[in-house]
Amino acid sequence: xxxxxxxxxxxxxxxxxxxxxxxxxxxxxxxxxxxxxxxxxxxxxxxxxxxxxxxxxxxxxxxxxxxxxxxxxxxxxxxxxxxxxxxxxxxxxxxxxxxxxxxxxxxxxxxxxxxxxxxxxxxxxxxxxxxxxxxxxxxxxxxxxxxxxxxxxxxxxxxxxxxxxxxxxxxxxxxxxxxxxxxxxxxxxxxxxxxxxxxxxxxxxxxxxxxxxxxxxxxxxxxxx
Length: 225
Fold this sequence. Notes:
By secondary structure, this protein is mainly beta. The chain folds into two domains: about 5-70, no CATH class; about 95-225, Immunoglobulin-like (Sandwich), CATH 2.60.40. It has three helices and 13 strands. A five-stranded antiparallel beta sheet has the order 5-6-7-11-10, with no helix packed on it. The protein is globular. The two termini are about 40 Å apart. Mean pLDDT is about 80; it is low at about 1-15, about 75-85 and about 85-95.
């Protein structure tokens, strides 16, 4: 049963709001939608994808990484009153992307892989979401250093260094003891102008200067449709 709470605290059980918890599609958009506990659902296509992941012996299969990196599916109850302005909206609602561009480009070097997943546009800034697959950090590290990004647009605009972000270890994404998956984001401001059609993205590991040989920056050409 799908349970939602409206703004006035009334519980809703409207099954027309049901969506696949993995891809976000409604029942009318898929062949089958299987109900789980609470508001959890899974469609036939995502179920097939999960079966393929289980059969794949690779610890970091592209299907597993793509599925785990999808944004959470949030089912909201219908609004009965006008949406509040941005100043009074909760912080979580203020930072919902209004445009998401799928990248899925990767590079490998010296036993590490950097996968750029998404370019997300928000009201005042934008973010690059990525997966960093590398050997585990040795004991003694108090934190995981974030990658340093530098962006150059085809219009000449530049973003030297990000303005915040996050990185967390995702031990649930693999079972290879030789590698750990880190999921991160880098935030930039201001937003690219509409004329920007291509970004040169450079990313550097701050500890790469201590590697032998020195780890060069990753470079990606990202096209913006």
